[in-house]
Amino acid sequence: MFVSGSGTGGTLAGVSRFLKVKKPSVKIVLADPSGSSLRNKVNFGVCYTGEEAEGHRLKHPFDTITEGIGLNRLTANFNEAKIDKAYLVTDEEAIEMAHFLIQREGLFLGSSSAVNACAVVKAAREFGKGKTIVTIFCDSGLRYLSKFYKKEYLE
Known about the structure:
About 40% of the residues lie in helices and about 10% in strands. By secondary structure, it is of the alpha/beta class. The chain has a single domain, classed as Rossmann fold (3-Layer(aba) Sandwich). Helix 4 crosses helix 5. The termini are far apart.
């Protein structure tokens, strides 16, 4: 299983297409932050997020601290991805995961990586033990000191 968030979709499309050729049974999972409509596109066929009112597409439907992944539009790259399942990851879940990984594993990750880690846990719980799950920790926490890791900002 491969789990990843998506910005423009290039990494997810390239990896998913390659893996599906090599092993068609591999599962590709999208890790999607709050406010993004990509999860609904994958799971329900509609590129729509609950934070938007019908007919009133907003550029930024609500504030999220996750940067670099999650969109409210489809890109050509994303349309090429072969995704089997998508999970929603809230800001709260991502923050909790990031702090857990610092304390337990010594990993200082950014918000996108924390979202990926949360989706890995959700996939493991759903698909069972004994599965190999791969993700990418694509950003360090250094870029997020003024937001994602700043108590005053989060409050």
